[in-house]
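Notes to self after the call with IL:
- keep both proteins in one doc
- input above output, always
- annotate only the second one for now

Protein 1:
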Amino acid sequence: MHQLIKSICCTTLTILFATAVSSAVEARPNVIIILADDLGCGDMSLYDGWIETPRIDQMAKEGVKFTDFHSNSSVCSPTRAALLTGRYQQRVGIVDVIAGHLDTPGLEATELTISKLMKRAGYSTAIFGKWHLGPELRHNPIHHGFDEFIGFLPGGCDYHRHSDWWDGTERKEQKGYSTHIITDKSIDFIRRNKENPFFLYVSHQAVHNFYQIPSDPPELRMRDAPLHGDEARRRYKIMLKDLDQGVGRILNTLKELDLDEDTLVLFTSDNGAVRMNPNARPYRGGKFSNYEGGHRVPAVARWTGHIKQGWVSDELIVGMDVLPTVMDIVGIDISKERKVDGMSVKDHLLDQADLPDRKVFFGYEPKLGTAMRDGDWKMQTKGDRIELYDLSNDIKETTNVADKYPRRTAEMKAAIKKWKLEVVSKNVTP
């Protein structure tokens, strides 16, 4: 009898343990971040733009569209640093585009990244496409927690010639068109890891110039593609529609493998528009600007069965919020790891909960100065120049009201000064 009871207890414990393990696995969704390059809100049909993007539009119908989502900077390297670390890019000294002539440092392996945290937690991790966080071997994505990396290290390259691409820490030429290669590698990674939790960073080159399209002949080098005018816009449109199709192929793969309910997918861009829109743009400024058009970017999140379908978020969210949000969702405690500047928006994402008020800063120093959002109030400062806008009735930032609201102006100016002292790298002029 005692042996029977012991056997029953052991069996019960085994079942309970198996159930707990199963629940833990179910609670650890796959995570895919799809990052476009130089894509502003005003170009996409999702935001009433001039180019039809049906697959991204459908993704929004199956999840949430964000209307006040921002990259941390209006250029790519700082944005990517903030996205991966959950911290203001100023803390790691990456405040400008990383390029040889600018002598900008890369992201050092001492930084704690979302990929490193996911790998520690048992996730398979990969990045395919653009890195742009440092050209040296020590900066390579493999040293930042990525198991796999196929792509390129600088800010841009030819869409058809890939002799400067890397496979891990070794140069390895790839064949094909950049957008297709990145999508194909991503789908292959998903298929190979369908039984395991994975983190995938799909880092597209499109729609960054030069405007090369899949049908271009091999002899058309990137600098032969026009950068302005009707022909450039025609090419840009083809590139964006091709990117949209790539997003659709990834979503199709998730559905085919029955991974829809197990995978959180975020689509966004690394900075605002490059002024290709032939119509009136929704926001002032674009890439290389601290106005809203420089850092307000398209964003959609989809997680079937978890994110309410077809709702729209008007909350202020920033790229550095991605890391703490993902950590919160997958159950990785980072409270003792490192203080992050972003905040988890998990409850907002899954339950439409309101977000707390906060001040958010956008810096591109020393070139553009600093911008700040405090609710609907927007301030820009550079030297003695101060601009204040009330976005609730002036979304295009046309009327500087700094003189009209001296108290508000003084408070926000003081907040910017305090923030700079806290985060600006010693190598950067405030």
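Protein 2 (the one to annotate):
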Amino acid sequence: MSSLTDLQVELIRGDIRQNGIEMSDLEDDLLDHICCALEEELDVNSSFESAYNKIKSLVCPNGYREIQEETTYLLTLKFNKMRKIMNVLGVIGSALLLVGSIFKLQHWPGAGASLVLGGAILALGYLPFMLSMSLKQTDKTIGKIRNVVGYLSSTAIVVGIIFKLQHWPGARVMLLGGIGMFLIFFIPLFIKSVGKEAIMKIQPVTSAVLLMAIVSTLFAFTNQTHSYNYVVTLVEMNSNLEQNLDFQLQQVEKLRNNSKNVALSNSSNDIVDYIGGLKHYILAQIHPEGTPAVLLPEDGPRYIEAIGNDVLVHNFNAHKYNGKELQKLLLNYNEQLSDNKLKIEKTQEWLISTFSHKPLFAIFTTLTQLQIETVNAEIKAIDAN
């Protein structure tokens, strides 16, 4: 098989360029294809010019420009299809974030699922499509670096926001990392590579998707902020209740020495210990890295959904500590009391109205009050005898 000289290869490349091929990848593919075919043809036809004209007429009878136009048409179809899919994913993801934010503000069920699904669609669907399309639209190294940095920072911010709204560990690191990467690296690269009018060159649909996502998450965050004084007051309330409980336990312990109702004392102890275990379980769910002894100020604004499974109202069989078992203990305790019975109902509605969609401060306050009321009922029963 004959081999082409470097001069002949360059002549072919120059002819391809002069006849309308502007895409570098298409130019390389055509050059490689023609050179391979031409080397075989030269074994039969010794004239380079006649062999080249023959191969050229076979490969592109209407000229190189036709191949360029067909390739551009096919790429445009594929590009438009990808853009449509990207836009649909962006709108769906942003809409789910907005719906989830509204549900979270209203404390309706399904808020967490909507937020997580919307964030997943944006992070795993919309943003990868956007990165893929943007990489194909630029050949400059700085442009590719800019797009990759933008994708990484956007993904970190979206995932960090979802983790923050769901009270999952690692949210702060992802948010700070994403925002830092966006401000320090992406914005300077964006302005440098695109120009002073960079913001005007973003696609309208992309702008709408990003704006909708930002508004949705900021809307949801309005429910996450509480004044410092408000939080401190709630901390003090819970602390005072715990101190009151300790005092009541000391008082009842002295009275038990003269009491003959051992069953009542055992039931009272069981309830106090069970509620204590329930509190510890909740703290362990929101602090998997290390369970604190008491509810921390930053935990109070969280809602009971933060523990993943609302064990006080649902999923009773899967957990040792749950609302159904607590209700059962309290009802059994009431049966041993002749007077001063606890205000407990047998119905599921009681559990829902008492514990469902309440901040953790309210949950802990209710649980501690139940412990105090249990001990006070025992004290009154002992005094009555």
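Annotation: The radius of gyration is 35 Å. Residues 64-106 form the longest helix (43 residues).
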